[in-house]
Amino acid sequence: MKNKEISKILYEIADFLEIKGVKYKPRAYRKAARNIEALTEDVENIYERRELKEIEGVGESIAEKISKYLETGELEYYERLRKDVPVDIENLTNVEGLGPKSVKKLYNSLGIETLEDLEEAAKAGRIADVKGFGEKIQEKILENIDAARMGRERKLIGRIFPLVQDLKKRIQGKDVFERVNIVGSYRRRNPTIGDIDVLALSDDSEEAMEEFCNLNDVEEVLAKGDTKSSIIISGNIQVDLRIVDEVSYGSALMYFTGSKDHNVSIRSKAKGRDWKLNEYGLFDSNDERLAGEKEEEVYDKLDMSFIPPELRENTGEIESAERGSLPDLVERVDIRGDLQIHSNYSDGSASMREMVENAEEIDLDYVLFSDHGPSLKIAGGLSEKEFDEQSGEVEELNDEFDVEILLGVEANIVEDGLDISKDWCEKCDFLSVAMHNRPKDATDRILSVFENYPVDIWVHPLGRQFFSRDPLDIDLDKIVDKTEEEHIAIEISSQPERLDLDWRNVKKYRDKADYVISTDAHSTTELDFMRFGVSQARKGWCNEDSVLNTKSIDKARSYLNG
DNA sequence: GCCGTTTTCGGCCCGACTGTTTTCAGTCG
Ligand SMILES: Nc1nc2c(ncn2[C@H]2C[C@H](O)[C@@H](COP(=O)(O)OP(=O)(O)OP(=O)(O)O)O2)c(=O)[nH]1
Ligand SMILES: [Mg+2]
Ligand SMILES: [Mg+2]
Ligand SMILES: [Zn+2]
């Protein structure tokens, strides 16, 4: 999958064009780069379908460049730009405070091409002598150069969640803060989070900033002003704080929640009316405030319904809000069952009894235990004999608990079908299937299993895992059609590393597909992962009706078995 | 370079912080 590679080239082109002082094109290249980076589908497939231009921000020219690169492995336009200023633009601009313009100056004056050159020049004191630079910048470069070498990897929302909650509590705990909201990609429930953005209300912003920059785990203060500060806390995590007045709080929430593209779009709309939208409010052409204290008011004045943060990705939500046709999104309280949990019969850490007790505590009506089939021994795969034992225990537990306990298997899609017999399939309340390797004919294998076995749920459909596994290269159009035909539900996994099916595809297929949101919990605490799956369903524009486990077990059963 | 219930050409979001600068450019959100 070359998405990352291509978006990197586009980002670099943007930087090189900025070096040359070209207007607007850098923004265009960056926008295209961002959208390609965010794709779940392999850009090469989109190229093969001749649909590159459907990607937001990709037009004639960029589509042609991507095609050339995919066909020849080279891009002359990019190579030419790089020849003019032959620097390691990606790494150099990774140094906090260094952008394309500074990199060019340093190249022209000192011939700096790499981070090593930069460090050497800074240590020798040569940077301070360059016009436009000085001692402080030179010092800052030396301080930040190692961070640039390491890079800052994005964090998974499900993993950073406790830390964010704790940080929020710590800030809220200080009297000088009257209101605190976590915003940015976290509020939008992005699967991954680049930094933690915080909006706050305080009548003494100076003192508030002081407290913020002196939190006990602050490692570096990147910037500190009256309304805005940035710090690095332990774990190499950046935290940005913005403080505004109450009259601006709503518009500041909008600004700081983003996304950037959503902001730009919506600000352009305001501008089209001769108004102005910024973090302080919505203003008419006489600078009279039209709204600002509440987000709802700002959207309302712009003749839009309120846009839930999860939808603010500039993927059609603005037009939809203008038409008043945004979906009524599914909520966590709508969820009535969890159709993938595990116990110590396989690689789970808790007994079935413990899992059920906890499920009852969080008001679930039903749960499905579905451990791996026999071919996945490393993941604690069960033999049919072990399954039968488990089945016996399920029967006992069902007598004892109100929660309806269902038993199934996560069967593995293998070369000639599933790794369990059809007889075994019939013993399952629900049959879940998944692919755990990546053969060339994956699409056909999946389709054939859907046709030939009584499949109920297709779990972690793309097999994606953040930072380690790319999504499977399969024909989702075809497979989703088949799930509709066969009454098979598609899982949205709540596991932080998976969140699979991903929200963009969830959105794409939401009218056809029936989704189930599952935790894949391997311990009692992981039952709480449900919130992350629900967030992804919301990002995918799902209403309650598109999610099967918001329904009673009888309704779910009659659909899946029908 | 992209894009269109104002446009197929003429626009392209808006502001804070920093360092170096005598008034602002660069970078970042
Ligand atoms: N209007 C406007 N708002 C911006 C711009 N850049 C960032 N913002 C707003 C929207 C962002 O969601 C918010 C926080 O910025 P971040 O850089 O932290 O981005 P975000 O949190 O969305 O993603 P992240 O996971 O941190 O990479 O600030 C911009 O250029 N213009
Ligand atoms: Mg952020
Ligand atoms: Mg930020
Ligand atoms: Zn699996």
From TrEMBL:
Repair polymerase that plays a key role in base-excision repair. During this process, the damaged base is excised by specific DNA glycosylases, the DNA backbone is nicked at the abasic site by an apurinic/apyrimidic (AP) endonuclease, and POLB removes 5'-deoxyribose-phosphate from the preincised AP site acting as a 5'-deoxyribose-phosphate lyase (5'-dRP lyase); through its DNA polymerase activity, it adds one nucleotide to the 3' end of the arising single-nucleotide gap. SMART domains: HhH1 (SM00278), POLIIIAc (SM00481), POLXc (SM00483). Its cofactor is Mg(2+). This is DNA polymerase beta. Gene3D superfamilies: 5' to 3' exonuclease, C-terminal subdomain (1.10.150.20), Beta Polymerase, domain 2 (3.30.460.10), DNA polymerase beta, N-terminal domain-like (1.10.150.110), DNA polymerase, thumb domain (3.30.210.10), Metal-dependent hydrolases (3.20.20.140). Keywords: Coiled coil, DNA damage, DNA repair, DNA replication, DNA synthesis, DNA-directed DNA polymerase, Methylation, Nucleotidyltransferase, Sodium, Transferase, Ubl conjugation. GO terms for biological process: DNA repair. Residues 50-69, 90-109, 125-144 form the Helix-hairpin-helix DNA-binding motif class domain. PANTHER family: PHOSPHATASE YCDX-RELATED (PTHR36928:SF1). It catalyses: 2'-deoxyribonucleotide-(2'-deoxyribose 5'-phosphate)-2'-deoxyribonucleotide-DNA = a 3'-end 2'-deoxyribonucleotide-(2,3-dehydro-2,3-deoxyribose 5'-phosphate)-DNA + a 5'-end 5'-phospho-2'-deoxyribonucleoside-DNA + H(+); a 5'-end 2'-deoxyribose-2'-deoxyribonucleotide-DNA = (2E,4S)-4-hydroxypenten-2-al-5-phosphate + a 5'-end 5'-phospho-2'-deoxyribonucleoside-DNA + H(+); DNA(n) + a 2'-deoxyribonucleoside 5'-triphosphate = DNA(n+1) + diphosphate. Residues 29-56 form a coiled coil. Residues 1-313 form the DNA-directed DNA polymerase X domain. One of its GO terms (molecular function) is DNA binding. It is found in: Cytoplasm. SUPFAM superfamilies: DNA polymerase beta, N-terminal domain-like, Nucleotidyltransferase, PHP domain-like, Sec63 N-terminal domain-like. InterPro entries: DNA-dir_DNA_pol_X (IPR002054), DNA_pol_lamdba_lyase_dom_sf (IPR027421), DNA_Pol_thumb_sf (IPR037160), DNA_pol_X_beta-like (IPR002008), HHH_MUS81 (IPR010996), Hlx-hairpin-Hlx_DNA-bd_motif (IPR003583), NT_sf (IPR043519), PHP_dom (IPR004013). It comes from candidate division MSBL1 archaeon SCGC-AAA382N08. Residues 337-415 form the Polymerase/histidinol phosphatase N-terminal domain.
